[in-house]
Amino acid sequence: MEETIYRGLDGVNVDTSEICFIDGEKGELIYRGYDIGELTEATYEEVVYLLWEGELPTRAQLDAFRATIAEDFAIPDAVVDLMRRLPHDAAPMHALRTAVSALAAFDPDPDGVGLENVRRIGTALLAQVPVLVGTLQRVRTGVDPVAPRADLSIAGNFLYTLTGEEPTEAATRVMDTALVLHAEHGSNASTFAARSTASTLTDVYSAITAGIASLKGPLHGGANTGVMKALEQIGSVENVENYVLETLAKPNGRVMGFGHRVYKVRDPRAFILERVAKQLAEESGEAKWFEMSLEMERVMDREMAKKGREVKPNVDFFSASVYRMLGFPADMYTPIFAVARISGWMAHLFEQYADNRLVRPRMVYEGPRGKTFTPIDERG
Ligand code: SDX
């Protein structure tokens, strides 16, 4: 019987979920019933509460959630030392994956997968990963880390532990929006990696480490860094067209920040991030990255139209210029994506552990059969 193969699990539904709905044809993204455009005014903590509890919090619920998170911001000194000891030119996603994995060794109950323990670890990771990323940037540049502050939000503490300065309201607001937009996206590669890992009933730290490992790839979360490195290589609006044409001329050439397995139109998050990038371009005086991005989209639209295709900007495209204008180095963009996606990964892990089934797909064997063993001394 001819077996059907779904390479890349393209179009395959592996489970049901109540967290996120994506309409790839219409370009719609919904978190727990709210269109993503409705949530950009919310703080990241409100949206995490929504993803985890299923409804936006009341003021009292949000205050209690924030108080719980604030208890967990501090990271073990030994993990800071570990990050110090890594080569300072190590890729930040290698360092982050290593540091998150190391946190398990300092957890009093790292392996329990009961919902209460999973929730406890998830909240700790939600609080600590932004601090890990901010601290990593300081130690790898030879600057002493600063301790997180209980009075700051997740976005605020990320900025504070990164820069050592009290973040402005405006920068915290932009960070909140960026974290909200990157928080959750259904069964993307890293979320599937986390859920598949958790399906063996291994621990949360292992599942989240799997998610970070997957997110790092340039076809997934690594694309935002890829976009910035391309813009830095191109250097000016005038050189954008040549870059795109040369990239498309290469076998399997891919322009980072464009295209998506599900969206067949522009990613709704790209519209929002474009507005943020435009506003920052006007305020920061660094408009060239935004202008180069607009030119890149113009050339891609023209070239893809020649192929009868629409390959449009995804979430990673304008986030690159947003982060550049906020002053972040390009190789820190994917760690920032991981900071945000802890919330989505954990929402999915709550679902996975609550009603688990081991993930175990099959392969159609096309190798040889019936071969006879020959002892090593008789083999040619
Ligand atoms: C994220 O899944 C998620 O939800 C992920 C994410 C999330 O929030 O978790 O949305 C975040 O990962 C966004 C995607 C970031 N990745 C990139 O920007 C990398 C560049 N994009 C491509 O590599 C690609 O678009 C993928 C990997 C994202 C999706 O690829 P598919 O679905 O496997 O599609 P494909 O590679 O088979 O391309 C289909 C066609 C091809 O034409 P043909 O060669 O068949 O004629 O579209 C073309 C491709 O050439 N195409 C591109 C392109 N993306 C697709 N051509 C040029 N540049 C691109 N970026």
Keywords:
binds s-citryldethia Coenzyme A; Citrate Synthase, domain 1; 2 domains; Cytochrome p450-Terp, domain 2; 380 residues; single chain
Give a quick precis of the structure:
It contains 16 helices and three strands. By secondary structure, it is mainly alpha-helical. Strands 1-2-3 form a three-stranded antiparallel β-sheet.
Give a structural overview:
This protein is mostly helical. The protein folds into two domains: 222 residues, Citrate Synthase, domain 1; 103 residues, Cytochrome p450-Terp, domain 2 (Orthogonal Bundle), CATH 1.10.230. It is built from 16 helices and three strands. It has a three-stranded antiparallel beta sheet with strand order 1-2-3. Helix 4 packs antiparallel against helix 5, helix 9 crosses helix 16 and helix 10 crosses helix 16. The radius of gyration is 22 Å and the shape is globular. The two termini are 38 Å apart. The structure holds s-citryldethia Coenzyme A. The site of s-citryldethia Coenzyme A has 21 residues, from helix 15.
